[in-house]
Task: structure prediction
Amino acid sequence: MTRARGQRQGLHFARARLSSDPVAFTVPDDELEFRASRASGPGGQHVNKTSTRVEVLWNVRTSAALTDVQRTRVLDKLSNRVDSTGVLRVAASERRSQLRNREAAAMRLNALVQEALRKPRPRKRTKPPRAAIEKRLEEKRRRSDTKQRRGRVKPED
Result:
């Protein structure tokens, strides 16, 4: 994507839909809270003096964008990522710029929420073929006979 010099790219790209997902939910930008901190790891002077790591926080419990059913589903599916106050936290520190990490964190959060809201396809019950049933029963008979023959030897009179 090309943009004019000096023009900043907003977070609108985070609204990209997952193609296989019919749920078109995106977290509203005004409900997101961003925190910047210093990224860990190697990097020399740049990483030591700039706050490029970005953490995006979204309170699932107080969000007006979710219905009660959606809220329950997100809290259930992402229970290991949501803290006790209902805040979902995603961090990004892969890029050198704070803006790119901010964009990456927002995209990752949206993808997590969309995946949590996606309903699994219902399983179609299938009947096993008759040959498979007969094969299983025959194997059971064979195994039973083998075990019957392991019994104590009866003395002959």
Summary: The longest helix spans residues 98-117. Strands lie at 32-37, 53-59, 87-92. The two ends are 96 Å apart (CA to CA). The chain has four helices and three strands.
